[in-house]
Amino acid sequence: MPRIQAESNAAQRALTQRRILDAFGELLFTRGLPGLTMTDVARQAGIGRTAVYNYYADLEELLIGYALDETGRFLTELKDGLAALDNPVDRLAVYVRAQVEDLSRRHLPPGPAMRAVLSPSSFAKLGDHVGELNAVLRGILRACMDQGYIPRADLEELAQLVLGSLAASADRGRKEPDPAASQEHTEATVRFIQRGVGARFDESGRPVRG
């Protein structure tokens, strides 16, 4: 009996925390970060203000918790999608597509805004997740070069080129209200980045070695 109770308590805590994070994300999307309070989050989540403080000491801790949760879930889904593919150029397409779609709908403030409200130690925690995401990209680009799908180039410079293109594309994607046009924009970004790093394709659109 005590064991069942412990599992039930853990499940309840996880559910409450999920409600807090979801409420916070919704408020970020609808209102933005400036002026947001823990009371607003509690009201949106439908729980008491004190309950929110049982999970997060302040808004900064809640923001970093939400950011880590969002990034962690994205990384898991991305890696699952990449695992199903062997061709590195196809994997690059999955990476770019996922990043554009995620960045276009993400509720998180941009990096400079995050740095302005987070302490250096909290911002560093985010950097660990971003670093892991960038490592995935470098691994894909390295495989493209090793397998002869793109020309040899400086890996870090190539990764920065891709990341810069992604940021610009996502910014435009946020302003595109039409789903069909947004999808077309995403696919155009995928092919633009693939060709930008030197990928080539046959008449059927399959990647070919140079």
List the helices and strands and how they pair.
Blueprint: H1 2-30, H2 38-45, H3 49-53, H4 59-83, H5 88-105, H6 111-117, H7 120-146, H8 155-174, H9 179-196, E1 200-201, E2 207-208
Antiparallel strand pairs: 1-2
Describe the structure.
This protein is elongated. It is built from nine helices and two strands. It is 75% helix and 2% strand. It has 210 residues and is mainly α. The relative contact order is 0.10. A two-stranded antiparallel sheet has the order 1-2. The protein folds into two domains: 56 residues, Orthogonal Bundle (Arc Repressor Mutant, subunit A), CATH 1.10.10.60; 150 residues, Tetracycline Repressor, domain 2, CATH 1.10.357. The longest helix has 29 residues. The N and C termini lie far apart (65 Å). α4 packs antiparallel against α5, α5 packs across α8 and α5 crosses α9.
Short précis:
With 210 residues, the protein is mainly α. The chain contains nine helices and two strands. The longest helix has 29 residues, at 2-30.
Salient structural properties:
mainly alpha; disordered N terminus; Tetracycline Repressor, domain 2; Arc Repressor Mutant, subunit A; 2 strands; two-stranded antiparallel sheet; 210 residues; 2 domains; elongated; 2% strand; single chain
Average predicted local confidence, pLDDT: 85
> What's the count of strands?
2
Please give the share of residues in helix: over 70%
**Rounded to an integer, what's the Rg over CA atoms?**
20 Å
User: So, CATH architecture of the largest domain?
Assistant: Orthogonal Bundle
| Sheet with the most strands: spatial strand order | 1-2
- Overall body shape: elongated
- In terms of structural class, how would the helical and strand content be classed? mainly alpha
Strand-residue fraction?
under 5%
Kindly report the oligomeric state of this protein.
single chain
Main beta sheet, described? Answer: 2 strands, antiparallel
Given as residue ranges, the uncertain stretches (5+ residues, pLDDT < 50) are 1-6
CATH topology (level 3) name of the largest domain:
Tetracycline Repressor, domain 2
Tell me the number of helical segments per DSSP (H or I, 4 or more residues long): 9
